[in-house]
Write a structure and sequence with these properties.
Strand content: 15-25%
Largest sheet: 7 strands, mixed
Bound molecules: MU-OXO-diiron
Number of helices: 12
Structural class: alpha/beta
Number of strands: 23
Shape: elongated
Strand order of the largest sheet: 1-2-7-8-9-10-11
């Protein structure tokens, strides 16, 4: 059965959510699922903006069929060629052979990479600023390379002032009927997953996101329609400000996040002592994560949020404990910048994790790694409490 929501007089959200998928991109846990958004414009010429992942293709095609009501599909605008959105392009062409595919030059190279050679007569190649009039609506196209793939573009409906923003402004999490951000407490219940989505998927490409934000600032926008998550139709300042901070690698708040790797609990104990010292000194909202328990995608997101980061790790196989190393390499791969970092390590006969963590963290742009490292031999000792307290004092002072 078709299942969609009208978002404007003649525009519909025809995508759907997958609550069964365990790992988005086969790497990011998504316990609340994910939505694959697609949009139908019921104009003189009929338009679909992006297809969906194959997991929700059934309802997607039911929706198109119902909304077309016997007419043909005239245009499929392809903003992004990643398979979570492009998977149904070939099937759409099979069902609607006369459909014109609208994309940029890179889009069509990718289409043929995924689907093989196609009839190029049905391709409409657009460049920055080109327009497509479909009757009442006129779309203009804005290139957004590396947000999140090189071919990405966003489409702006000049008539309704809607930005179809591809992956930008998306989020993990299924849509539960309330597809608009203003229909839920987005700032409280969804922002953590929006941040985790942004930082893990697009976080590496801050400069490119800044470029798109600059272009978007020249447009009058009444609605933002991303390819995942909620649609924004008011209070744009909230999400735009977050995107600006995230893409400039500035912390959202003065706060401390502690990530630790502990084999038998001794490094964990040192972190607990530090967290208590910080709390005693008035530091609020301290967040502590065990890297063996919490997926790195969550901790990475937290490192984008907070200004001060503490990493504590056991030494393992003459190096950093593997799950801590994974986290640090994820932070490096996502190009996080401009943080204060503090290091604790542990090693029963040769603690080297601290030095190796320092090598990774010091290589990150704008990272300031505190000179004072606390190194334990198997466990924290009474005589080290003074050092730990000095570290806590330093962090609490900086957070004031
Ligand atoms: Fe949702 Fe980059 O694909």
């Amino acid at each position: 059965m078709y299942s969609y929501r009208k978002i404007k007089d003649d525009i519909y959200m025809i995508g759907a959510s997958d609550r069964r998928l365990a790992l988005f991109e086969n790497v990011y846990p998504i316990k609340d699922g994910v939505s694959y958004n697609s949009y139908f414009v019921d104009d003189e010429k009929t338009v679909v903006l992006d297809t969906v992942d194959k997991s929700v293709s059934g309802v997607f095609f039911e929706n198109i069929k119902h909304l077309l009501n016997g007419r043909s599909l005239d245009y499929l605008i392809v903003n992004h060629m990643e398979p979570d959105h492009c998977a149904m392009i070939a099937d759409t062409i099979l069902r609607y052979p006369d459909v014109k595919i609208v994309g940029n030059a890179k889009t069509f190279t990718m289409i043929e990479n995924f689907f093989g050679k196609m009839d190029r007569d049905n391709f409409v190649t657009v460049s920055e600023g080109d327009e497509l009039c479909t009757g009442k609506h006129t779309f203009t196209f804005v290139m957004a390379p590396m947000v999140h793939w090189p071919e990405v573009m966003v489409s702006y409906d000049k008539t309704e002032k809607i930005l179809f923003s591809a992956d930008a402004f998306g989020s993990f999490g299924a849509l539960d009927g309330n597809i608009f951000a203003d229909e839920i407490d987005y700032d409280k219940s969804k922002i953590d997953e929006a941040r985790r989505y942004y930082t893990n998927i697009v976080g590496k490409y801050g400069a490119q996101v800044q470029a798109v934000l600059k272009k978007a600032s020249t447009l009058e926008i009444d609605m933002i329609c991303p390819l995942h998550g909620h649609i924004f139709r008011k209070d744009f300042g909230f999400i735009l400000e977050k995107y600006d901070l995230w893409s400039r690698y500035e912390a959202e708040e003065k706060a401390v996040v502690i990530a630790y790797a502990s084999i038998y609990g001794n490094t964990e104990n040192a972190v607990s002592v530090l967290a208590n010292m910080l709390a005693d000194k008035g530091v609020k909202n301290i967040r502590v994560y065990d890297v063996s328990v919490t997926d790195p995608s969550f901790i990475l997101s937290e490192c984008f949020r907070a200004s001060h980061l503490v990493f504590a790790s056991s030494t393992y196989n003459g190096g950093i404990f593997p799950k801590m190393e994974t986290l640090l390499l994820e932070i490096k791969a996502h190009a996080l910048q401009n943080r204060k970092a503090y290091i604790l390590d542990n090693g029963s006969w040769g603690a080297v994790a601290g030095r190796k963590m320092d090598e990774i963290l010091s290589s990150l742009k704008g990272f300031e790694v505190d000179e004072e490292k606390i190194s334990m031999k198997s466990s924290l000792k009474e005589e080290q409490l003074e050092n730990l307290d000095r570290l806590a004092e330093k962090i609490s002072f900086e957070l004031r």
